[in-house]
Each structure stands twice: as structure tokens, then as C-alpha cells.
Design a protein that fits this description.
heterodimer; A: alpha+beta; 11-stranded mixed β-sheet; two-stranded antiparallel sheet; 13 strands; elongated; B: Rossmann fold; 4-stranded antiparallel β-sheet; 7 helices; globular; binds adenosine-5'-triphosphate; binds magnesium ion
Chain lengths: 411, 222
Amino acid sequence: MRDLIKEAARSLAAHRARTVLSGLGILFGVAAVIGILSIGEGARREQEALIAQLGVLNVQITSTELPEEKEAKLEILRRTEGLSTRDVRAIVAMLPGVEHVGGSRVLEPDTLFPRPADRKGLRFVGVDPGHLAGSPFTLVSGRPLRQEDEKTTARVALLGEAAARRLFGRKRALHEWIRVDQTWLRVVGVVRTGTGGQTSMEGVTIQDRSGDVMMPLSTSRVVAPAKRGKAELDEIQVAFASVEDVVPGVDVLDRHLKRRHREQPVYELTVPLTLIAQSEAQQRIFNMVMGLIAGISLLVGGIGIMNIMLASVMERTKEIAIRLAVGASPRDIHRLFVMEACLISLLGGVLGIFAGFAVSWVVAWFTGWATSVSLQAVLLATVVSTLEGLVFGYLPARQAAQLQPAMAVRL
Amino acid sequence: MSAVLEARGLQRRYGGATLALAGADLVVERGQFVALVGTSGSGKSTLLQLLGCLDRPDAGTLHIDGEDVSRLSDDALARVRNRRIGFVFQSFHLLPRLRADENVALPLRYAHVPEATRLERARELLERVGLGHRTHHLPGELSGGQCQRVAIARALVADPPLLLADEPTGNLDSTSGREILELFTTLHAEGRTIVMVTHDPHVASFADRRVHLEDGHIVRET
Ligand SMILES: Nc1ncnc2c1ncn2[C@@H]1O[C@H](COP(=O)(O)OP(=O)(O)OP(=O)(O)O)[C@@H](O)[C@H]1O
Ligand SMILES: [Mg+2]
């Protein structure tokens, strides 16, 4: 066996350019496989992050912008006033399988204390504790907003981590005071949201909640009373009790809301669960198509090896005949060529793994997609490339082993 | 004690028409030096290939060292070539990428002798053919006569009972040719059994027996 590997390696080293060229196909194939798997893996992780941010059990009902044009706007406002706390109560009353329901509204205060260097990313929201209950937050310090806060119009605020950093820097935010327009609020807690940054899925932008300054809904009305011509709530979040309830629940919800708002386009439904299902289906198609391409490139790589090996058998007829003449059996010759094919494809495979890492990195750099090379992908690539050597080396090896030693005398 | 080589009615037909060898009988006893002579195309090489198990006869039987090799599988026949026969070719047939000692050691590699042992044995043999100082040279760096001596060392490395040579001096100038011929006569003097194809009467004159071929027939012996 050692003799065999040495002999094969030696003859490959003697034809360095040819070896590299024939291994190139495998290299690209393996790089493609690893790159593609890394994109798939990255997408899977992004999805997990999304679930962490929105929650699969939640459904968001968001107010749509009313049209700019006055006539059209009035036309809508005559029929409905948009999302309101009455919708919240109605949902609680009619929709079964619901765990929490709560509304929220976004404020746009003019003045702020402490004054942050940059207000970008900060969002001021009045939220119903029922809204918060369904959100996948983890408490970093302090306490969440409670039902009593809502009832007593407590002057309290709950900050996302990014908001706390923006307002107080390194200082501890808990128990500090902030002023939003004319109202002072005391920070009672800091929370961490699902992920950082903005993500987008299936064309829906998912807002990062980490920059939120949250206060009870009732308190938000003290800070800034409802404006005429604008919906009372900007968002209602419905949290279902179990995954099975979500899809039928959304149906009922949509029909009910349509009737309540007289078919006016004042709201939009975001259903993370179906978004994820859609994106998973797309991911599957992507994986299948790309997998096919990668498979084809591996096949082409293997055929490349076979092609070059067959040519090399022709060229090495004399060497083969000499080996046979001094006592090599056809089986010895067969093994030599299979070993050469395996070494080529293994070499291509190993280089391909490195190239695959590079592909994954480059894709991440240019597209901003999260990519991740898994250990399984690397193992798969190694096994596949070695197998390719065995499979595609077989035919040339058989050809070589069928040569007759008598040729030695003639050559 | 049986003959080293015993061929009965060996026939070989190439393609459809030409009967290159039309039933040859040849018995070679241990220690004999036999020359196969005849005009070009008379079937000398064809016979030698059959004797050397490089080719299979269409008819007839062949015993080497007492063993019937006519019905062996390809792999078993390879073993016979490896252990029982040393073959020397007209144009040396060394592997160009192997050093002299590695070329000599090649048959032992297929006999599964460990690398260090076989290289040591190869050097001993190169020593014997007078190339002890050229063990690490590639064939391209050696003269024709030196290459042929490497090839002879290779044929002897597994210590086979039978040494076959097809015009071993055919590609050499007269000086090198004479040296190679001397080497063969020395080997013969040491008791080796040799069958050599040649069309040079001078070379043939060193042999114990001269077997004449004509049109695929053994016509006479002198
Ligand atoms: N592989 C082959 N295919 C077809 N015909 C062949 C083959 N080998 C030999 N022959 C024919 O068989 C006959 C005997 O050839 P062989 O090589 O044995 O002659 P030879 O006595 O060795 O001649 P030379 O002295 O020229 O080497 C010739 O007519 C040759 O053309
Ligand atoms: Mg001849």
C-alpha cells in the first residue's frame, strides 16, 4: 500500500500541470458545494434569528399610511378611524386560542432629555402590556411593564439595550429619568431583543426593537394625545397559544378586521410563521437548484479526471507494459491508476474545501448574507471527492489493466 | 531433474492470416545457453515472448521449471514472469523516471519485498554488472551499454531460473555489444540458463545450441 501511494504520487508529481488541471474540476465542484451549503446554512441561522425576534406565535397588525391625497383620505376616514383599542377588545372577545393581545403607538417627540448625539434608531412607543407579553424579549435588568402601569398611567419606561446605550452611554440606565417632550419617565427595566440590526424577509422589513423606548399606552397619551386623522394605534400584536392556532386564527382575524374597518385598506397583517414557511420553501428550491449545479460541476470534474486519465493510459502504454513484463499483475496496474485518480480528486477536494471557505466568505462580503460552513459540509466534500476518484478512475484503470505485456517487446 | 523449459507444439497466429509460429517444440535443460536464430520475420521474437509468458500461445503447452503455465490466469502468469523469468529487451525498457537501482528493484516491488531490502539487493546486482557507481542515475543519464546492464541486473534481481533476451546487443555499438555479450557468457559460465534471440552469427557462436527458425518453423539445430 505504501509502495502504491508512493508510486502514484510520484507519477502525479511528474506530470504536475496535468495533475493540477485534472483536479481543478473537482476543486470547483467541491468549492461550489461548500459555498452553496454555507449559504443555505446561513439562511437557516438567519431564520432562527428572525423567529427569535418576532416569535412564530405572533401576528402583527400594522396601520398603513393613509393616502396623501385629501379626498381619498377623507373617504377612508369617513368609514373607519383605523386601528384602535376597540379592535384590541374585539379580538380578545371573539378570537379563541389567543394568549395575549395588545396595541402600540409610535410617538414623535420634539424634545428629549438626556439629549442623545443622534436620534436615529431611537423609537418611542406606547405599548399595551399585552403587546409586550407576546414579544420575545429577555429582561437584562429591572422589570417589564405591567398591567398596573397601564391602569395607573405610571410614568415609567422600558428601554431596549440599544436605546439605553444611546441615551445613557456607559452609565447604568436603570432608575434614571428621561424626559419625553414635557413628561418625565423613570426607567424601570432594560430588555434585550431577538437580534441586532434590521432584517428583511420576503420583502417585509422587520424592525429591530432594540432602539425602543417603551412606555404604557395610557402614559403615551399623556406624552402626546392622539392626533386627529391618524389611527389611534400603529400596531396590534396578537400572540397565539400554539402554532396550530396561528393559521386558522389569522383567517378569522383578517375577516373580522375587514368587516370592522369596512373593507378599507387601513391595516396590514404580518404573519412570521407563514413568512418563514414561504422562505423555507424558497430556500428548498434554492438548495435544490444550487445543489444540482454543484452536483453537475462535481460530475464534470469527475469526467475531467476520467478524460485525462484515459489519455494518460494511452501515453503510458510503454510504462504499463514494462511493469507487466517484470511481473506486475493486471490487478497491480488497476490499483495504480485508481490510486492516482483518488489522489487527484482528494487533492482537488482538499483545495476545494479551502476555496469553498473563500467562496462563502466572498458571498457574505458582497451580499451581506450570513454564510456558515458546517463541519458536515466539509466531511461530505471529502468523502464525495474520494469516491469520485474511485468511480471515475475505474474505467481508465480497467483500460490500463487490459493492456498486454507482449506490447513491451514491440515498443 | 526436469527441464527448465519445455515447449510442445507452440502456435501463435496474429490476426486471421499470418501464422507467426507454426508449432514449435523446444526443451532447454538447466545451465544451457540457447540462441534462436533466423531471418527477420521468421518468428524468433514471437517464440521468445511465448516462452517468457508475455503472450499466450493459440495452441501447444508450455512448462517452466516443471510447472504447466498454459492455463494460468493473468494474475498467476504475472507471478511466473515475476519469479521464474528474467527478460532483457533490445531497447532496454527501463522506466525513465526511476533511478538505476529503483529500476533494478522493480520486480521485487511486485514480489512485495520491503523497499529497503529490495534497494539493497538492487545495488548488489548493479555492483555485479559493473555499475556500482551509477546506482542513483536516471536511465537518461546512462549510455546504451550501461542501460542494458541495468536491464540485465533487473532481469536477475529476483534470481529467476530462466533468463530470456531478445537481441540484447541489437541497439548497441560493437564495443558495448561485446561487453554485454561477455556479461552473458559470464552468467552462462556461472550456470544460468539463457535463451537469446540474435541474428548475429558471432553472438550465436557463444551459445551451446543454435536453434534455427524459418517461417514460424524450427528447421534445424546446430
Ligand atoms: N503484433 C503483431 N501483429 C501482427 N503480426 C505480427 C505481430 N507480431 C509479429 N507479427 C508477424 O509475425 C511474424 C513473426 O514476427 P517476429 O517478430 O516473431 O519475427 P522476428 O523473427 O523476431 O523478426 P526480427 O528479426 O525482424 O525481429 C512476422 O511476419 C510479423 O509481421
Ligand atoms: Mg524480433
